[in-house]
Amino acid sequence: MITKEATAVAPAVQRTVPEPPRPTGKRRAWDEAPRWQIYLPLSIYLVFTLIPFYWILLFALRPAGSTSLVPWPVTFDHFEKVWTDRSFGVYFENSLYVGVATLVMTTLVALAGGYALARFDFKVKQGFMLALLCSQFVPGALLLVPLFEIFAELQMINSLVSVIIAETVFQLPLSIILISNFIKNVPYSLEEAAWVDGCNRFTAFRIVVLPLLRPGLIAVGSFAFVHSWNHFLFALMFLNNQDKQTIPVGLNTLMSADSVDLGALAAGGIIAAVPVVLVFAFIQKWLITGFSAGAVKG
Amino acid sequence: MAQAAAVAKPPAPPRRRRASATPRRLPYLLIAPAALLMLGFIAYPVISVFYYSLQNYNPTKPWRNGYAGFDNFVHAFTEDPVFWDTLTFSAKWVFVEVGLQLMFGLALALIVNQTFVGRSLGRALVFSPWAVSGVLTSAIWVLLYNSQTGITRYLADVGIGSYGTSWLSDTSTVFSAAIVADLWRGVPFFAILILADLQSVSKDLYEAAEVDGASKIKQFWHITLPHLKDAIILSTLLRAVWEFNNVDLLYTLTGGGPAGETTTLPLYIANTSVDAHNFGYASALTTVAFVILLFCSMVYLRLSKFGGGDK
């Protein structure tokens, strides 16, 4: 995304920068802010970011009734209680099932759609693109009632399938746009070369394009997983049986109880956070490159 | 997550292929699953919302069901003060949240874009709330704001404020309390997207500016900001739509209270349809919300001259 200013200034660069590179220290001067200008605001922001995390850990690990600011002695009672008595074990399994199924469905459907948008010119293409963009404005939360009626008609209320479908559908538009941008960045000639070598379209895609799409697929897949893991309203609305509920609904139940068991709530929160934190740690590196390659360069 | 599209560009001009290379039905087969899912579970519900908005429809009062014309809309605009209250609160919420998130997100992105010792750890830590859900954010801040064992107790211990203060149940503090909780989760969104876009600023530009004697602030105004412009416009727009629509956090953190103080329009709609079963009226309110969103987005894109300097 180079702006006009950028391209206009670029030629000037060649003229003004002296040919032999300047000494390294000087050359990098533009890049170097005084250290305190980095560390001071960063530390302040880190305190704001980390205190809430520390707070929930504190409540999860210290015994009920303790007011110590250090979680010592450490107890795992809250985790045991929330996992078995408050059925977070069951919720965890349900959430994992919904998350993985949404990830797989979203990625496959978006790969197919994204490939079509990136490689073909067809009649309804512009209309389809427009529909994808417009659907960004459609809030799932406001469609709860008609969606409920559809799933009731399909006899899917109280089945995790309803939540998986709903999560996938609202994840699709963005995923398709992202994946089609990633595919556009892979030169078509690579595929054509593979056809010449005797591959059919699908095999060529699988062995030539797919490996190059890895950062994009990781970004899209983890979005789908994290989003459906975190999302709350669909599960709240479409699943009535307690043994079908997901983690966010379980957390909400803990919070809306008359006297909130803070230790259990904190332990439940940690259980909710673990998978997304793991996914996040794993994808963080790809997230930035994924965005800049897939979305920005377009 | 909506911001990812923020930086998505319009599609490149379609490539022309010879007919032999392009089986005619293949693209349609490929988009069919996505198209069918979206038709069935987005388009159809949207149309039925429009339909219900013109109906009296309440499963608990079936004797009143039937065509209502524009009664629902008239009721909302003329007889329902709650509608106006929630709309005003929504506007305030979106404006403050998006403004602050952009400001802090931009600052944070510029900081972690520098080279310094511990950068990757710093990035991972400041971005970490990104992955946390609205409900979990609520859970965390419920613990922090708790009147007995929350942060106010320890502040009171060192002489700041008084014991038993509950920021979430006091109408004078609940807004700021909710804003801070949502900021905690929202700032990393902007930071991640802006950082991604910063990666593509050509370093030569800064070197040239440096040689020409431009100050850091000038470099920011004349190189960095113009480069980020389109990304910022789109991400603020999508974030605003998202903040408007999203109900997870407020639903679980304040439940719209105390005394309806933090009820957004979508939260009111959810209550109207789920608790009061007044689907017809809720649909009319949804339609109004759609129209407002669409209108504001167009005005915003027009005013900000989106895509202006970009070819």
UniProtKB/TrEMBL annotation, chain A:
Signal peptide: none annotated. The chain crosses the membrane at residues 36-61, 96-118, 130-148, 160-183, 204-229, 262-283. GO terms for biological process: transmembrane transport. Keywords: Cell membrane, Membrane, Transmembrane, Transmembrane helix, Transport. Pfam families: BPD_transp_1. GO terms for cellular component: plasma membrane. Residues 1-28 are annotated as: Disordered. CDD domains: TM_PBP2 (cd06261). This is Transporter. It comes from Streptomyces resistomycificus.
TrEMBL record, chain B:
Keywords: Cell membrane, Membrane, Transmembrane, Transmembrane helix, Transport. GO terms for cellular component: plasma membrane. InterPro entries: MetI-like, MetI-like_sf. The keyword GTP-binding does not apply. Residues 1-20 are annotated as: Disordered. The chain crosses the membrane at residues 26-54, 93-112, 124-144, 279-301. The keyword Transport applies. It is a multi-pass membrane protein. GO terms for biological process: transmembrane transport. Its main location: membrane. Gene3D superfamilies: MetI-like (1.10.3720.10). It is found in: Cell membrane. Belongs to the binding-protein-dependent transport system permease family. This is Transporter. It comes from Streptomyces resistomycificus.
